[in-house]
Amino acid sequence: MYELLVPVDLDERRALSQAQWVASLPNAEESVAATILFVFESDTLEEIPEAVKQQTPSKQFVDSVRTAFRYLDDRGIDVDVVDRRFEPAETIWREAHGRGVQTIVLGGRKQSPVGEHAFGSVTQQLMLKSDIPVVVTGSPDSR
To answer: The pTM is what?
Structure first.
């Protein structure tokens, strides 16, 4: 099984773009397993009821997670959701290594003409730090 980590943020279109890339892999429904990762920031955590924090709150409260999950699940791809807290780049890196994934699939952002060759800070940190391949799916606006 080819294991992928799909860290999503709050942007539904970016999460869908990431899910579409995963689903486009050859024989994805038979040979791919994806873990959608959502990293809660401290201010987001305060809005979640204490009882729900023990579960997978992003599946219930975060539209981008639900969108990516449904897209992959509807296509028969083995998909799981995990929530973590704080420090997105470090958390993504630790989660990828802890799970032994083969690829990290990030969503890109549309850049201004001046910044079109630069990546977001989390993407840039992961590309520099990770020994695991990092795929950046690109901005949904650029399609």
So the answer is: 0.83
